[in-house]
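Sharing a chain and its predicted structure for anyone who wants a worked example. Both blocks are below, sequence first, tokens second.
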Amino acid sequence: MSPTSSRRNAQHNLSTSLLASSSQTSMLWNIQYLESLMKFINDSRNSQTIKLQSRINHFNSKMFAKIENMKMERNRILYENETKMKN
């Protein structure tokens, strides 16, 4: 093999390895970007889930209070009716 052809082979090998390295770097960057995007989406989902759960809990506590008030009102009316019937 002549010195010129071995130099060409060395340059070709170097450029091929640089392309592979560049391609791998690009692939790693894309993977890191996709991972960060997935984390952002999951964090957003978790945030929305927490907000929704908070709204549901707030609604449930208000409904529980209303039901308790209705029970107390019913018991008050029943008690009034019983006392009226006794008199």
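Comments welcome. The helical segments are 3-86.
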